[in-house]
Design brief:
- With 318 residues, the chain is an alpha/beta fold.
- The chain has two domains: 176 residues, Medium-chain alcohol dehydrogenases, catalytic domain (Quinone Oxidoreductase, Chain A, domain 1, Alpha-Beta Complex), CATH 3.90.180; 131 residues, NAD(P)-binding Rossmann-like Domain (Rossmann fold, 3-Layer(aba) Sandwich).
- 28% of the residues lie in helices and 27% in strands.
- The strands form three sheets. Strands 3, 5, 6, 7, 8, 15 and 16 form a seven-stranded mixed sheet that branches. A six-stranded parallel sheet has the order 11-10-9-12-13-14.
- Helix 4 links the parallel strand 9 and strand 10.
- The relative contact order is 0.17.
């Protein structure tokens, strides 16, 4: 089968689409024929070598955190899923994988997949797995967003940002999106009540907010100061400076800066599918690349300035 792999740490030039053996599912695992995957910050960070203390120095390393496709085989003891079922899911972000979601087939434990939402293409489904699950966990489990609250989504045009805007809007919150001016119309269409241009808006001139969802990972203390009494903040944009700010914010108790590792299992993926089916969450796809051009997809991701997600079409014709 074909699989995108990292041959060494570095720029997108280290990505290769190689011929590898098709894996077989073990006990408690499923083999999925992958139709689409997406490009996530985790993929780029692993490729760069910033997480080499986790991913190690043995190559090749698989690429692609998420996937959408169809189960073709199940291992011993698998219950609740069967061959022929359309699913979406993730490989484990903290484990080293020789092949990831950007491959023609992937093997994962059964508790890392969920039924794909009906009527949604594989490309659209792949765009929502990591982004949608991250936004859902951030809003529901990390900051416990409540109906009617005032929400700021920083980095609102990205994958997690567009999902967070939609989910907060569906809950009846007042949503302020911080993004590029040129993305304002799209974000209003997704449910933003107000769009502020991040290039000309400083943190001291906005707020207060009950909840801040940050996807950028910079100036965290400045934005934390814009929380209202009882406000909560969560960031998914991690960097050494962000980690330092998160640790230092612990003195503020409930108004500290929260973070988490988005590592959804079947229950979260089922909930996410329900949000898609209900219309509360819809895909936002910026561009689609064939598997052979995954290096170009990574380059586009690193340039930024997009709305939504870059998706890698693994199956021909998508």
């Amino acid at each position: 089968m074909k699989a995108a792999q990292i041959t060494s740490y570095g720029t997108s030039d280290v990505l290769r689409v190689n011929d590898v053996d098709r894996p077989a599912p073990g006990a408690g695992e499923v083999l999925v024929s992958v139709e689409a995957s997406s490009v996530n910050g985790h993929d780029v960070i692993v490729r760069s070598g910033e997480l080499k203390f986790v991913s190690g120095r043995r190559f090749p390393i698989g690429v692609g955190l998420d996937f959408a496709g169809t189960i073709v085989a199940t291992g011993a003891g698998v219950e609740g899923f069967r061959a022929g079922e359309r699913v979406w899911g993730m490989v484990h972000p903290r484990e080293r994988h020789i092949t990831g979601g950007a491959a023609e087939y992937v093997v994962v434990p059964v508790d890392r997949i969920g039924p794909a939402p009906a009527g949604v293409s594989a490309v659209d489904a792949a765009s929502l797995v990591v982004a949608g699950a991250t936004a859902l966990i951030a809003l529901r489990d990390s900051v416990h967003l409540a109906t009617g609250e005032r929400v700021l989504v920083r980095g609102a045009a990205g994958g997690v940002g567009t999902a967070a805007v939609q989910l907060a809007h569906a809950l009846g919150c007042h949503v302020t999106a911080l993004a590029r001016d040129r993305h304002a119309q799209i974000l209003v269409g997704l449910g933003a009540d107000e769009v502020l241009d991040y290039g000309s808006t400083t943190s001291d001139r906005i707020g207060p907010f009950d909840v801040i969802v940050d996807t950028v990972g910079t100036e965290l203390n400045c934005y934390r100061s814009r929380l209202a009494k009882g406000g909560r903040m969560v960031t998914v944009g991690l960097s050494p400076s962000a980690l330092a700010a998160i640790a230092a914010s612990s003195v503020y108790g409930p108004r500290r800066i929260r973070t988490f590792s988005a590592n959804p299992g079947t229950a979260v993926l089922r909930d996410l599918a329900d949000h898609v089916t209900s219309g509360a969450l819809r895909p936002v796809v910026d561009s689609v690349y064939p598997l052979a051009d995954i290096a170009a997809a990574h380059q586009a991701f690193e340039r930024g300035g997009i709305v939504g997600k870059h998706v890698v079409a693994v199956s021909a014709g998508l």
